[in-house]
Amino acid sequence: MICPDCGHDNIDGVDACDACGQSMVQFDPQGGDLEQTINRHPIEVLVHKEDAIVEHDTPVRTVIEDLISKHIGSALVVSNGQLVGVFTERDVLNKVTPDLDAALERPVSDFMTPSPETITSQDSIAYALHAMDLGGYRHMPIVDDTGKPQGVLSVRDILRFLRVRFAKLDT
Amino acid sequence: MELQNILTSTEVGELTYKARAKLLPGNTVADAADVMRTRSHGSALICEEEKLVGIFTERDLLRHIANNGNMEIVISEVMTANPETVQSTDHLSDVVRLMDEGGYRRLPVVNPDGSPIGFVDVKTIVHFLVQHFPEAIYNQASHTQLIAKHREGA
Predict the structure, then answer these.
(1) What pTM value is reported for the model?
(2) Complex ipTM, two decimals?
(3) Which of A146, B39, B60, B69 lies most in the core, judged by the most C-beta atoms within 10 Å?
(4) How far is Cα A118 from Cα A75, in angstroms, rounded to an integer?
């Protein structure tokens, strides 16, 4: 059980948080096994694929090659170590293909989606599911408290987690 | 109801399909990109005599740009031919398994005669899950919003 006050990960069923003493009784997760798991587990338990983090002035051509070689669908664009945008396959379709030859040598910052919605690695899987459904995102950048990007959560990471954890679909 | 039961008892036909543009194998990559862009679609169905022969997706486009970039070549050369398909009577569990195993983010739905109906994609599945577990999902706040950065009070 993650303490909602201080974030300490307690043993399931404790009455009070071991770190800060906050009563945990009212936060005892309700609902079935699935509900409890997606509320209790932060997204950091999911396996992330190799993430592409690129500088804002990288040519689009290089970023596209990165996406292909790393088998990923989006890259995080940074400037001075801070996340400034994401660049996805959809940006390629919408913004790069109309004038392909001229676009490929221009910086990725000309085509990225600026100021994307982000999550932290301590947010719950349930929160990520909601945010992705609401925004229609397939990917969400994971940042730390200072806005430094740590990786990307893909909606397929969540589906895989649920499949492995709950849906014994192979039998 | 448990997730496993929901997935094995729900048929693909109960979900909302995403209708997608149909193109011919002889159309060019530029044609496909134009149609997908104007309709805000990430994929197109490639059909011959009303039968699905391939799909063309954002990923195929990306790969093509990295390899060659000639937008005037025909789609049949760069599409994903004979893609894995599902029918409306298949179960959601089959869709999730196929997507995970194959690394697909969408699967075309076809009639028994092979004519395409549309796509079911990962976002459709996520929306389905969110609707089925509203108590667990809607009440969530971000971790960063829950925790005070500084001790309150004196």
Answers:
(1) 0.78
(2) 0.79
(3) B60
(4) 13
